[in-house]
Structure formats: structure tokens, C-alpha cells
Amino acid sequence: MERRDPAPGRRTPRYSVDRRFLLVTLVVTAVILHGSLYPYDFRPQPGSDGPIATLLESWHAPRDSFGEMVANVLLYMPFGFFAVLALRIPLRLPLVILLGLALCTSIELAQYYDTSRITSLMDICLNTTGTVLGAIAGVIVRIPSLAPVFRLRSLRPVPLLLLAAMLGYHLYPYVPTIDVHKYWHALKPLWLNPLAGPRVVFHYFALWLTISFLVSDALGRPRWSWFFVLSLAAFVFVAKVLIVDQSVSLAELAGGLAAIILWLAVLERMRWGAAIVAVVLCALVIMLRLEPFVFRAIPGQFGWLPFRSFLGGAIGVNVQSFFEKSFLYGGLVWIAGRAGLDLRIATAAVAAIVLATSVVEIYLPGRSAEITDAVVTILMGAIFIAITGTKVSRVPAGARP
Questions:
Q1: How far apart are CA 6 and CA 142, in angstroms?
Q2: Are 258 and 192 in contact (CB under 8 A)?
Q3: Which DSSP letter does residue 127 get?
Q4: Residues 234, 176: contact at Cβ < 8 Å?
Q5: CA angle 198, 201, 205 (to 5 degrees)
Q6: By the 8 A CB rule, do 380 and 333 touch?
Q7: Residue 12 and residue 29: Cα distance in Å, rounded?
Q8: CA–CA distance, 310 with 294 (Å, rounded to integer)
Q9: Which residues pair with 42 in a beta bridge?
Q10: Is-contact 394 31, C-beta < 8 A?
């Protein structure tokens, strides 16, 4: 059963805290702190102007790429969203915004003493913007007159979050262009390149089968769900033509079209449609984690530090990778729950699969075998449980009553 709001006759205390969302907010805060301050190599900076003066002078520093700027906004949106849901007090919106501002400002000042980090006033502006957008989304969800829209009888929040994660990694770096030559190069693979091998086609087939399920699940089984599935597919394909560094392949078009047809024509009407989608997505996760299935005799090292692979490189690439992992592992947890599993069991099972494949990755060259993906899975499961409870309806989202 889904979590329900208190009965109409029961009054909610004027000042209260939702412990479920408070726990999620604390976890999100810990992830932000860990990712922003690792490897915690703090040293004094003699002869400099100090952290505050350096922060203010950074306004004139060169700007990041558009994708990096968007990634800084997206990084703090979960904090604002879950913090607003956790607090049930007056003026919670400005309070959460101030908390987000204080958090990112404190981090930027601390990064002044971190030899591997750069203090940036622009990052504070972008992080605070992300907090504002996330907090506004949380307030909208809590508006009583809009409650029926955001409850499971209309729009389901978990599938919407997963679809947002899909768009977050699938359309990076989010920069459209009006260059006609770019459009030609984005479409050229459709007729100049041969169809890729079965692995690539299956990749896109499983991806779009999952997307089709989540769209129908988010909408609550409307008879016109086909319209939204096709509309989202058209939006993604057109966006990939318009966005720089993106293109449309024949394998994605063929696999996506086959998946959408299979879902709308067959699986949406089957009682066990969710279970079938879960099996297909599980196969995709295992395939992606163990490709190219060429194992070396001497194992590498296993990393027990969470998010180690996210702590270096560009923030845009790291956020994109986090969105992809959240969509794949979180999607598998949620769809398994929709197939009938308790969300706690589904989270533990998916985390076990991810952890097992992470251990196997020590034998794969060029892979970073670590505990991060299992932690991401547990984090996504905890968020779903906080939103919906431990059990969700067993009837697949697209099944007709």
C-alpha cells in the first residue's frame, strides 16, 4: 500500500518534521559534502588574501561550460526538494533557500583551504539556484489543492523522478544549437552507418522499454498513455538532433521503436508486464557492468570509498554519470516493487546484484571496481520508501482494470 496523508479530520501539527524526508535530506547533504571536499587535503594558504576575498574576486574568473553550469544547478535541486518536504513549518521555502545558501557558501570557503579545489562565487549562485528550484518543486507538491495531481491516483512522483534522471544523462550537455551542419551530422548515422550489433540494439531496446513503462506508470494507467510515450520519444530524438555532441543512431531508433511497440501493443495489457520489464532491465544492467566480457587473470583493486570515481574530473560528467546510475538501478528497484516485491527486498536484491558485478569488475581492464553503485542503489531505494512506503501496488502501471 502507498503512504496516504492523514485523515481529513486529523489536524497536522503546525510545527513538525517529516523524519522520512529529513533522513533523505541528511543523506543528500552528506553526499554533497563528501563530493565537494574529498580528499580532505586541507592546508593553510600563507600570503593569500583569505577565503572571503578570494571568493569575491572569483567573480571575474572564466565561466564554466553551459553543461557544467547546469550540473551545478542540478547538484543542489535534490537538497531543496527533500528539505522542503521534510519541514512542515511556516516560511519553510525561504528557510530552505537560506540553508542551501549557507551550505554551498560554507563549502566554497572550505575549498579555499583544499589544495585540489577552487573557490568560486559563480558556483554559489548556481548551487543556490538549484536549491530554489528544488524547494519550489517541493512546495508545489505540498499544495493541498494540487495534492490529487501528485498522488498515485494521478501522477506518481517516483517514475517522474526516474524519467527526470533519464533526461539528465541522456541529453547532456543540454546545449542546443542552430547550426544546420550539426543537424546533418546528428542524422547522418541513420542512413550512412550500418545497424550496430545485437548488444547495442538490446541496450536501447531495454532502455526504451523501461522508459515506456515509467511513462505509463507515472500517468496512472490512462487510456491515452500511448500519446505521452510517443511524445516523449519524439522529444528525446529531436533534442538529440538539436543538442551539441549528440546524435541519433540507427540502433537507438530500431531498438526504441521495437520496445515502444512491444510495450503499447502487448506488455501494457499483461498482468506480469512489470516483471518482464524488470527482467529485461536487470539483463541490461548486468550487461553494461560486465562488458566487454574480457576478463584478466590478475585482479585489480576494489574501492571501499563511496563515490570515489565521482571525486575527480568535470562535475558535468560526474552528474551525468550519477543520473545514469540513478535511473538504471533506481528504475530496477522501482519496477521490481511494481511487480510485487517489497521495496526493501527489491532494494537489497538490486544492491546485491550491483555489488556482485562490482566485485567481478576487478577482473575487467579499465574499470573502477568500487562500492559506489551499491550505495547509489540503497540511496535510491531509501528515497522511494520515504516517498511511498515499503509496498506499492502489484498491478503493473499499464494493466487495464
A1: 13
A2: no
A3: H
A4: no
A5: 130
A6: yes
A7: 27
A8: 25
A9: 114
A10: no
Contacts with 366 (C-beta within 8 Å, 6 or more apart), sequence order: none
CA distances from 91 to 11, 14, 15, 102 (A): 19, 12, 11, 17
Distance CA 212, CA 301 (A): 38
Would strands 87-88 and 16-17 be described as parallel, antiparallel, or unpaired? antiparallel
The ranges of the chain with pLDDT < 70 are 1-15, 39, 47, 60, 62-65, 67, 142-155, 191-195, 221-222, 310-314, 393-401
The vertex-182 CA angle with 179 and 186, nearest 5°, equals 145
Q: What angle do CA 281, 330, 274 make, to 5 degrees?
A: 45
* DSSP 8-state symbol, 87: E
Instruction: Of 134, 3, 137, 23, give the one whose Cα is nearest residue 378.
Output: 23
Q: What is the pLDDT of residue 99?
A: 95
Among 216, 183, 169, 204, CA closest to 70? 169
Tell how many helices (H) and how many strands (E) occur in the chain.
Answer: 16, 2
**Residue carrying the nine cell digits 537560506:** 98
Q: Determine the Cα–Cα distance for residues 15 and 194; give it in Å rounded to an integer.
A: 62
Report the pLDDT value the prediction gives residue 152, as an integer from 0 to 100.
38
Q: Is the torsion defined by CA of 299, 304, 306, 308 positive or negative?
A: negative
Distance CA 365, CA 102 (A): 42
49-58 tens-digit pLDDT: 788 888 888 7
What pLDDT does residue 98 have? 95
Q: How far is CA 268 from CA 214, 277, 395, in A?
A: 11, 10, 11
pTM attached to this predicted model: 0.75
Q: How many angstroms separate the first and last alpha carbons of the chain? A: 17
d(CA 210, CA 396): 13
Here the cell at position 308 is 570515489
Q: Is the dihedral of CA 98, 101, 106, 109 positive or negative?
A: negative
Residue closest to 244 by CA, chosen among 123, 70, 62: 70
Give per-residue pLDDT as tens, 317-350: 777 888 899 999 999 999 999 998 999 999 999 9
Q: Which grid coordinates are listed for 85? A: 518536504
Q: How big is the CA angle at 167 (ends 319 and 136), to the nearest 5 degrees?
A: 80
b/e per residue 222-246 (b: at least 16 CB within 10 A): eeebbeebeebbeebeebbbbbeeb
Sequence letter at residue 329: Y
